[in-house]
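User: Last request for today: this protein with coenzyme A, please.
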Amino acid sequence: MALDALALDFTICLETPDLEHRILELTDHAFGPGRFVKTAERLRENSHVIPDLSFVAMRGETVIGSVRMWPIFVHNFNANTYEPLAFLGPIVVDDAHRGLGIGKALISACVEAAFGKGLRAVLLVGSQSYFKPFGFDKAQNITLPGPVDPNRLLIRYSQPDIAFAGKVCPENAQVI
Ligand SMILES: CC(C)(COP(=O)(O)OP(=O)(O)OC[C@H]1O[C@@H](n2cnc3c(N)ncnc32)[C@H](O)[C@@H]1OP(=O)(O)O)[C@@H](O)C(=O)NCCC(=O)NCCS
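Assistant: Here's the final one, the structure of the complex with coenzyme A:
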């Protein structure tokens, strides 16, 4: 699948395994090794990207942007429900290609794909100033497996009348 990005010389495509090296290179450059100690990483370690929800921006043969989505669920202990969600991140655009709408195109692609496959929310840890225009709001009553700035825990629901509450776990977690 490839959607042409309007009037710009890049395409948005699904991530493929051969691109992982370059994706990690972009991510390392943008975030450095400090990213591994963040709580968000607890939801990614020992897990796997969701292949049909993780996208790259390509300029010719070169990866110039990436957004990855990971399988998580919200365990509502009181209601004893398990809601599958997608955890968005990292999103990164190559330094030389920022401000061209590539980040926006990546977010649209992965969020639409997540809702298209029936997931009812996308969660992330990131800045409100960047993500609010894409429909993300502070996640209320949701906790992560570690400390996180509540102003940066953001969620976008597929419908306005949905609200989940509970503890977020990686897909492979053992819930007691
Ligand atoms: C954040 C990042 C992915 C944005 O990518 P980008 O391709 O430059 O973003 P876009 O060109 O699609 O910008 C979309 C909109 O967000 C705005 N924007 C861009 N970077 C922003 C930022 N850091 N904070 C707030 N708004 C921002 C743009 O002005 C644009 O607004 P507009 O639609 O009104 O013109 C890119 O700067 C990046 O890779 N940063 C380093 C990694 C990072 O911080 N990732 C996000 C973690 S929270």
